[in-house]
Specification:
The chain is an alpha+beta fold. Helix content is 30%, strand content 30%. The protein folds into three domains: 104 residues, 3-Layer(aba) Sandwich (Rossmann fold); 144 residues, D-amino Acid Aminotransferase, Chain A, domain 1 (2-Layer Sandwich); 63 residues, Dna Ligase, domain 1, CATH 3.30.1490. It has ten helices and 17 strands. The chain has a seven-stranded mixed beta sheet with strand order 6-5-4-3-2-1-7, with helices on one face. Strands 12, 13, 14, 15, 16 and 17 form a six-stranded antiparallel beta sheet that branches. Strands 8-11-9-10 form a four-stranded antiparallel beta sheet. β16 and β17 form a beta hairpin. The chain starts with a strand and ends with a helix.
Length: 324
Amino acid sequence: MKNIAIICGGNSGEFEISMASGKVAYQHIDSKKYHLYLIVLKNQQWEWHADSGEKISVDKSDFTVKKAGDIIHFDAVFNAIHGTPGEDGKLQGYFDLLGIPYTSCGVDASSLSFNKFLCNRFIQSFGIKIAASFSYLKGEKVDKAKVMDNLGLPVFIKPSGSGSSVGVSKVNKPEDFDGAVEKAFREDNRILIEEAIMGRELACGVVRKGQELLVFPLTEVITQNEFFDYDAKYSGGKAREITPANIPQEVETDIKATSSMLYRQMDCNGFVRFDYILTETELYFLELNSIPGMSEHSLIPQQSEVFGLTKKELFTMVVDNLFL
């Protein structure tokens, strides 16, 4: 059987969420087809967490582990790292150099989708609507008056590169603006300040199965919080997630077709999630999650089950794709 490294952890505020995703993947990938190894990355510490509780260091020169004199080589990687370095292209480049295939998007798609500023410009080139925004680099003067004159309030202030809404604030009052800017800059050296689009939040999961694309039923997210923030995503009862979403058929078809087109145009791989805001008159692209949440209650597993795939089928399928 082939050896599969399930990598999780990472160096961002999404560490614990990634750990949960990695453990779910470890639980559901078919262990009768593959030898599974849970590899936890945290800064310079890369370790295999064995079932026995033993932690064995990974040799970063060739991504191997040694146990009892035997060297374990990995045939492929299941990437469950949200945030850096697993979602922004850094690890993808490392595995490309080593010639080890992985389940997530490649370097280009990962780095583009992780940088919300650049990704929005790419998406906009296809005529897809995005929220009006300003972008600032750390060290630049953020012109609060200009932002509010052009975008009004409320606005969303977010790091250009982050996930799970880490570092994101919805600003309703001018006095909260500066604190939200500081919060966003703690996560990244570029921030986005976007107009708040009021509407229904919809999520569309897409996965490759061989040469075929599977587009899952849509989910509508309804949150009790100001927006679908970290607390609403991971604290029970703070959000309702309705799958399939109760929306007009033509809207659903449009969202699925748009998501499928973007998946191909960006050369995505594995399962990804496209998020949108639907107003009374328009559809706005919100973001692309190239490594979306994979926990038991995350949106993609919910959607795949409504579609007719078990978690075992879903997680095993993305590994199978690497050996077709």
